[in-house]
Design goal:
Blueprint: E1 2-3, H1 38-52, H2 58-68, H3 73-81, H4 96-117, H5 122-144, H6 158-172, H7 177-196, H8 216-222, H9 236-244, H10 266-284, H11 289-312, H12 324-347, H13 355-361, H14 364-386, H15 399-420, E2 425-426
Antiparallel strand pairs: 1-2
Length: 427
């Protein structure tokens, strides 16, 4: 890790001879705007604020209100959007990790062009990508091991998932759109085949499988209409993890992931990052600004529709195992969110409102680490100095919202202090 002024997110590369296998930017049309792509910083900031503020505590707040009014449509909707769905489906909170991975791809379209322009060889850049992969994997394991009695050797954290695919993503950087599309399709089809043809009976919804964390009542509610290939902790991803994770040093044998998340998710999520890379190349291209926006909108809508169709054909939208339909559906939302921010911030130049997001987006690693390591300590410290009831100023039911907001604001102030002093933490 290092602290420095960040590389511009949307530099237009000066003419140079491309490295072997790397294509230069397209020519013709309106040149890409110089300076940072502020919409990408704002998007990154939006996601990191959601994480650092712990979703503003809205899921827990909604639960409190639903205890008193279980039929409240408003609080049911809030809970749905700020908590992961149990298995099939999607809410806002389920788009956090896809957004992470998508933005990694968008950023790569710019960052290695800058390195290439500075004269770095392909071999050196690949070495950097490989080293970044290792750091991301180790950092992810370190963070999820916080407060654990021993190292938690899981590979499903968003940082470890990015790390598992990052070096492979670099190998696709600078290749043709055709190569990108064929690779993305291959990743999704291979994932589908691994799950669809894995010989497993799935879980009987009537009995469940408590030995792998699937109670009968849960199975009846969430697996009754799902093909056995995509059942929780009864699929090829689970089989891979029961083999792979038990090769790593553990205090107790790995038997199942309580949330159903699998290491194998990195394979289809690499397609998510690859779609991000393609979008980054669109934004970096010499097309007109409106042409870039049209391509993003068309691409996002196409991916969204393709995901829904694949879901209708029997491959369910399941974020926890990153099904191929989920890959397309969630990435479609990511593209549309980026397109909306690009239209508002970079095209219409309505930028002032996004400043709080940009402050966080330019120090995303810093606020992510703070959120993972310091959230509980910060809340306890506030109670130490302002009293045990400091978070109940809006009533006990809203205490999770107040707590998450105050803790998040402190993290934001740290990022603002770093921003003012041009301190940017990067890997």
């Amino acid at each position: 890790m290092s602290t420095s002024t960040p590389a511009p997110a949307s530099d237009v590369p000066a003419p140079l001879a491309p490295a072997p296998g790397i294509r230069p930017a397209a020519s013709g049309g309106e040149p890409a705007a110089a300076g940072r792509l502020q919409s990408l910083d704002a998007y990154r900031g939006l996601i990191m604020v959601a994480l650092a503020f712990n979703g503003f505590g809205l899921a827990a707040t909604a639960q409190n209100h639903l205890k008193a009014a279980p039929d409240s449509g408003f609080w049911q909707a809030v809970y749905h959007q700020f908590e992961h769905v149990e298995w099939v489906g999607c809410g806002f909170w389920d788009l956090i990790q896809p957004s992470f991975m998508f933005m990694v791809g968008v950023s790569m379209a710019y960052s290695y062009v800058k390195r290439q322009r500075e004269g770095q060889s392909w071999r050196r850049m690949f070495g950097h990508a490989a080293w970044r992969s290792v750091i991301l994997i180790l950092l992810g394991i370190f963070l999820i091991s916080n407060s654990r009695p021993s190292t938690n050797w899981l590979l499903t954290n968003v940082l470890t998932q990015i790390g598992l695919g990052y070096a492979f993503l670099f190998l696709l950087w600078g290749r043709s759109v055709r190569t990108h599309l064929i690779t993305a399709a291959a990743l999704l089809l291979v994932t589908w085949a691994l799950y669809a043809f894995y010989p497993a009976p799935g879980i009987d919804p009537g009995r469940g499988a408590p030995e792998v964390g699937v109670p009968a009542a849960w199975a009846q509610e969430h697996l009754a209409n799902v093909s056995p290939a995509w059942h929780k902790n009864a699929n090829v991803g689970h089989a891979v993890d029961t083999w792979l994770l038990n090769l790593l040093p553990r205090r107790e044998p790995f038997t199942f992931n309580p949330g159903g998340y699998q290491t194998l998710n990195f394979l289809p999520s690499l397609a998510t990052m690859l779609f991000g890379l393609m979008c980054g190349e669109v934004l970096r291209s010499n097309r007109t600004s409106r042409a870039r926006l049209r391509l993003l909108l068309a691409g996002g809508a196409t991916l969204l529709l393709a995901g829904v169709i694949w879901h209708w054909l029997g491959v369910p939208l399941v974020k926890r195992i990153w099904t191929p339909s989920w890959t397309l559906f969630s990435t479609g939302w990511c593209v549309l969110i980026l397109a909306a921010l690009y239209a508002i911030i970079d095209l219409r130049q309505w930028r002032a409102w996004s400043f709080p997001l940009v402050v966080v987006g330019m120090n995303s690693i810093a606020i992510y680490v703070m959120g993972m390591l310091l959230r509980g300590w910060t809340a306890r410290t506030l109670q130490t100095h302002f009293g045990e009831d400091v978070f109940k100023v809006l009533g006990a039911a809203n205490a999770p919202f107040v707590q998450a907001t105050l803790v998040g604001l402190l993290f934001w102030l740290v990022c603002y202090w770093m921003y003012r002093r041009k301190i940017f933490l990067r890997i």
